[in-house]
Specification:
By secondary structure, the protein is of the alpha/beta class. It is built from 17 helices and 13 strands. Helix content is about 40%, strand content about 15%.
Amino acid sequence: METSVPSSWRRCLRWRSSYRISRESKVNRIAIAAPTLAVAALITGTPALARDQIKIVGSSTVFPYTQAAAEEFGKKIGKKAPVVESTGTGGGMKIFCKGIGEGEADITGASRAMKKSEWELCTKNGVTDVTELLIGYDGLSVAQSKKGRPMDLSKEEIFLALASEVPQGNKLVANPNKKWSDIDKSLPDTEITIYGPPPTSGTRDAFVELAMHKGCAELDYFKNQKGELDKKAYKKLIKEKCTPMRQDGPFIEAGENDNLIVQRIEADPNALGIFGYSFLYENQDKLQGVKISGTAPGFDTIAEGTYGLSRPLFIYIKNPHRKVIGGMEEFIAEYTSDDAMGEDGYLHERGLVVLSEDELEAVQERAKKGTKMDAPTS
């Protein structure tokens, strides 16, 4: 059993722990002291609503949940449903952090926590009052067609299939593995074909951290390096040598459209695909999850953290827009409602691994107050 905790989960655990504190310090409370009209004037120059339709960008994994909340909002409130665009986590952060104003995005979804570099970009552009909300959990599913031979892979095997370079003796060489059986004779004698997200995707970031980095660290070559290098040098080695994905054919970047990956692996019984659990859940009549060291992705295994590729999901809200963009307060209330995020909510029906009751109550309080997030440290 792995004892180390990925940085994204460490931050999530700290975040969850802070949620359990019912009385937050005044420093962390929302501090929009200016009246609504003053903020509207700041954004638009006029004391009126800046826009009557919410703009949302971000993660392709979070997209179906946000889209579902947008549809329910439109039905219940009778206002225009938000415009939701799947840009990937990294792309969404760039758009979200461009600035404050009528032409800028109001909310972004993320399949990982905001990075320090992204916060610095936001700060540079005046986006400093942001609420971070944990909306639930997801499993990074490695999936295949139900027509294919069921697979059970370790993280080391995943790394050896996808890495640009792999150990050979006491050095790293260009990845020579063309078939799964080249990695281990017990694996299928078929060519390695894996469809996955691009570098701008939060799914890609999480997969690299949870699968690639963990997998390479289990190999003897990197274990030996860990014994010889100091902590900083070893961390740099892992980042530089265990992050790049091979570009010689077996790994195929499929853009931010996870449905396209579903279609491709459904058509090819020997291919695998990487995407969020919701896409596997919604296509379980056609697809099956690849087990990771004997554990299949599922609601329980993801929530418990026993499935090795589990991660938290977030949305980020631009607080200065809340009173001047029509419907934002109502949409945030809908998104974080029991009907949406509860145990029997419609987001769970879409595949979201929901929060505990206590966590959800804390999220709802944080959303209502517009609690300002702390600056990320990594």
